[in-house]
Amino acid sequence: MTRSESPGSRDPDALIRRAGDRGNPDFDQHFLVDDRVVDRIPGYLPDTADRSHILEIGGGPGVLTDRLLAVADHVTVIERDPTFAAHLREEFADAIDADRLTVIEGDALEVDLPDATACVSNLPYSASSEIAFRLLPLDIPLVLMFQQEFAERMVAAVGEDDYGRLSVSAQHYADCEIVESVPNTAFDPQPAVQSALVRLMPRKPEYTVADEEFFLRFVKAIFTQRRKTIRNAIRNTAHISGLDDADAVVDAADEDLLGRRAGNVAPAEFAALAQTAVEHGFDDSDDG
Ligand SMILES: C[S@@+](CC[C@H](N)C(=O)[O-])C[C@H]1O[C@@H](n2cnc3c(N)ncnc32)[C@H](O)[C@@H]1O
């Protein structure tokens, strides 16, 4: 009976019953039970997105897996919990036999990621940041569920209260947009906070950085001192950014920028400042 259901129509509560286990919040298991929400999620991929291979992280009972199988040629789902991975293999045996579904039992932070063309996931919240930053460099469209507060920080623009390290780092890779806020009543068990779906469309940033790793570390360092001026933040965080000579960077940087605070520095300005830091802040800076 379960195997003959057409993709896209499985009932969330029935899937949880068949999985034989309720979600355990200690293992990030908040399952979507509002099928109006689940039905909308694949539609947040843009029309132009390549749906030949969609990756899902954290399949759980499989309600989103089911909806993705209705729109993708192939789905790969990664699930860490052995009970739910076994359930997914059983529930979607037909799709596996037809070579339309791959179930990877493992930790999404450790397994090799497949060569997917898009990723759509209701992420495990305690690892959502790390997972997102594994996905962002893949250069594919992402539709990801996060805690609302995290999502707001991710999409914030310079000058907004939520603008910070997360905004600059995520927007380095993609245009980020909240496409739907999701109440906690859409999940079982209910998380304590609201959630939000974010669409992340890959694109090159409007600036170039010679050393991406340093740029991201520098931004992280400066935002640890977000109440300080950029001048003091550069000086106080050399142990994080790894600068040998923070004073030389301050001497070389733009005076106006040095007097501002991180929350008012746009990503392109951070990129220019990071370039100044690379050119002046290391012992071998002038050695070519
Ligand atoms: C928020 S639930 C989403 C389940 C399902 N997709 C849904 O929307 O109802 C997150 C799922 O990720 C799994 N999970 C937690 N940490 C994981 C990890 N590090 N790697 C892979 N799966 C993980 C949990 O077991 C759980 O099934």
TrEMBL record:
CDD domains: AdoMet_MTases. It is found in: Cytoplasm. Pfam families: RrnaAD (PF00398). One of its GO terms (cellular component) is cytoplasm. Residues 1-22 are annotated as: Disordered. Keywords: Cytoplasm, Methyltransferase, RNA-binding, rRNA processing, S-adenosyl-L-methionine, Transferase. S-adenosyl-L-methionine binds at H30, L32, G58, E79, D107, N122. Its main location: cytoplasm. Belongs to the class I-like SAM-binding methyltransferase superfamily. rRNA adenine N(6)-methyltransferase family. RsmA subfamily. Specifically dimethylates two adjacent adenosines in the loop of a conserved hairpin near the 3'-end of 16S rRNA in the 30S particle. May play a critical role in biogenesis of 30S subunits. This is Probable ribosomal RNA small subunit methyltransferase A. It comes from Halonotius terrestris. The gene is rsmA.
